[in-house]
Amino acid sequence: MQMLADILNRPVYTSQMEEQAVVGAAIAAGVGAGVYAGYAEACSSVIRWNESPRLPVKENVERYEEYYRLFRDLYSSNRDDMRRCSALSRG
User: Fold this and answer.
1) How far is the C-alpha of 60 from the C-alpha of 70, rounded, in Å?
2) pLDDT at 91 over 90
C-alpha cells in the first residue's frame, strides 16, 4: 500500500479485513439477497478501516513522478511502433 500512496501522492486508507475478496463477495450476496439496501449501506456496516493511512513519502513520490514522465516520453516516441507490433501479433 505504500507504493500506491507514493504513486498517487495521496493518503491511502486500508481495511482491517484480511480476506477482502471474501468480504466483497459477502457484501455482494447481502445486497443481492436484500439484507442491505445497497452497497453503500453494506460497506458502511461491514468494512472496518485502519485509523492511520499510509502517507506518501516525498522522496518516493518524486521518483515515481520521474518514472511517469519517462514513461510518457517513451510511449509518445513508440506509440506507432507498438500499434504495428500489436497488429502483427493479431495476424
Assistant:
1) 15
2) no
